[in-house]
Write a structure and sequence with these properties.
By secondary structure, this protein is mainly α. The chain has one domain. Helices cover 72% and strands 1% of the residues. The chain has 13 helices and two strands; from the N terminus they run αββαααααααααααα. A two-stranded antiparallel sheet has the order 1-2. α4 runs parallel beside α8.
């Protein structure tokens, strides 16, 4: 179960087979995303795709660290509950903190405790929300996280590498249905599972015995969803609106508003993730901590510059699609 190629291929096949069943279940239970002010799609779309992604990758979760099924299932349950009933923000936050604390307890890092646990928990909260925020165009979140997990499969070793490959494969299979025009969405359940899985990859890269260049390079792999949270907070604070209120001024929304086709906007994000990941892997492969730091800082500066230029950091006028 540690062969990353086998993990990826099997997860692709499993996701292709399981996603139609998840779509049927979503329609039967009413778990569909209907058009609205913050929903640009023209028709109702089922959103239990995250369930198929989770099940497709779960055998390698068991092979890596079976205890991780607890927090990952918790992430799926929290997101699905939010999809169905709309949880209060503080309910979501409490759940996210509990999930992050669970990951921190199962995947210890080289950072001394209790700081290591606090940082992993904070990363989980950040990435669950970050993935949720970039899940706004067909194929966007699944493509970006798929690229991130492919890079993690190259960066990590042993069972963690196979788990990353399985997660990437599950998203490749899911993209057969989630590519534009999407027939199924990840839903909050899927976004939270992917954010939690990204946290597992990040914590694994910071495990005892990993090179500092590897640990630092792993930060770059999650820079894009993390930056999305920062941009949303700045934008909403400047607009003096609630930090948990949705809007349509994410950078990808502004690209579409400026005339970019949604597919091209999604591909731009995925390409940016792939570019940053490639640079991070090169630095890690050279065992260069300085190179990895340069990649992280450059990626952060480029994302901030792009967001500022597009207007994603300003309050601006609401975009309706």
């Amino acid at each position: 179960m540690t062969d990353p190629y086998l993990a990826g291929v099997v997860a692709i096949a499993a996701a292709v087979a399981l996603t139609p069943a998840a779509m049927a279940l979503a329609r039967r239970t009413g778990a569909v995303d209907r058009p609205g002010p913050l929903k640009p799609q023209a028709t109702a779309v089922p959103y239990l795709g995250g369930l198929a992604v989770f099940v497709a990758a779960s055998p390698w979760v068991v092979a890596y660290r079976p205890a991780l099924l607890g927090p990952l299932l918790g992430a799926l349950a929290l997101g699905v509950a939010d999809d169905f009933v709309g949880l209060l923000p503080w309910h979501r936050l409490v759940g996210e903190v509990a999930i992050g604390a669970g990951i921190a307890a199962i995947v210890p890092t080289r950072v001394a405790e209790p700081l290591g646990g606090v940082l992993v928990t904070a990363a989980a909260v950040l990435l669950m929300n970050g993935v949720n925020l970039i899940d706004g165009l067909d194929g966007l979140a699944s493509g970006v996280l798929g690229a991130s997990f492919v890079a993690s499969a190259v960066l990590l070793h042993g069972p963690a590498r196979a788990l990353a490959a399985a997660a990437a494969g599950a998203l490749v299979g899911f993209l057969a249905y989630n590519r534009p025009p999407a027939r199924v969405y990840l839903g909050d359940g899927g976004a939270y599972v992917l954010g939690s899985a990204a946290t597992v990859m990040l914590a694994s890269a910071w495990a005892h015995g990993e090179r500092w260049s590897t640990s630092t390079a792993a930060v770059a792999l999650v820079a894009l969803p993390a930056a999305e949270v920062a941009f949303a907070l700045v934008r909403r604070l400047r607009a003096r609106s609630s930090v948990v209120a949705g809007d349509r001024r994410h950078p990808y929304d502004l690209l579409v508003a400026h005339g970019w086709p949604p597919l091209v906007s999604s591909l731009a994000y995925i390409g940016a993730e792939a570019l940053v990941a490639t640079a991070a892997l090169l630095a890690a492969g050279l065992h260069s901590l300085a190179g990895a730091l340069v990649v992280v800082v450059t990626a952060a500066a480029a994302l901030i510059a792009a967001a500022g230029t597009s207007g994603a950091l300003g309050p601006g006028r609401e975009i309706r699609t």
